[in-house]
Design a protein that fits this description.
This protein is mainly alpha-helical and 180 residues long. It contains 7 helices and no strands. The model has no long low-confidence stretch (mean pLDDT 89).
């Protein structure tokens, strides 16, 4: 008997949609701050060089390697597994489930929560930077988040369309087998 491609399609839309909308909100808010530095004429040639270098580093490190290489495929795989399971509490927490913040092996769980705390800490630190530094940092982050958001949308759309996981969803053994 073949496994259904997707039993609960709405889980994909809820899990990925909530994350994508959160990222889009951050992109819009940070883009305003980045634009403010440029609009006020604070972007001197040396600062533009810094911004360009920072943007290359953050887009490669966070956008390409972290988002596109690790997070997006794992999110799609986890949402695919979740969409095939009978309804339960995990479906309500689909965004957290997709980000490996619940129902994952202890090592991945710790890693996901530490990453979340690290991102929150970085946000608090960057908010304290004066312009044009904050604008430069935020410009790079906007570019990386945009790349990452597109990677998430692409990976989730492909998984939803094909029903195939491209990476290990990293689930504890009891969470991999659907219960009746």
């Amino acid at each position: 008997m073949s496994e259904p491609v997707v039993r609960h399609r709405w889980v994909f839309y809820w899990g990925a949609g909530a994350i994508v909308l959160s990222l889009f909100d951050a992109i819009v808010r940070l883009a305003r701050v980045a634009w403010d530095a440029r609009e006020r004429g604070l972007m001197r040639p040396a600062m533009l060089v810094f911004t360009a270098l920072w943007t290359l580093v953050i887009v490669y490190g966070e956008g390409y390697r972290a988002f596109a290489g690790i997070l997006a495929p794992r999110m799609a795989s986890r949402l695919l597994v979740l969409s095939r399971q009978p309804l339960g509490w995990r479906h309500v927490l689909a965004p957290a489930y997709a980000l490996s913040l619940v129902t994952t092996p202890p090592r991945r769980l710790l890693s996901a929560w530490m990453m979340l705390l690290g991102v929150m800490s970085a946000i608090l630190i960057v908010r304290k930077l004066p312009q044009p530094w904050r604008g430069s940092v935020d410009f790079g982050v906007v570019c990386a988040l945009t790349y990452g958001t597109l990677a998430i949308v692409s990976a989730c759309a492909k998984a939803l369309r094909t029903g195939e996981s491209v990476t290990d969803p990293e689930l504890p053994l009891q969470a991999q087998e659907p219960t009746q």
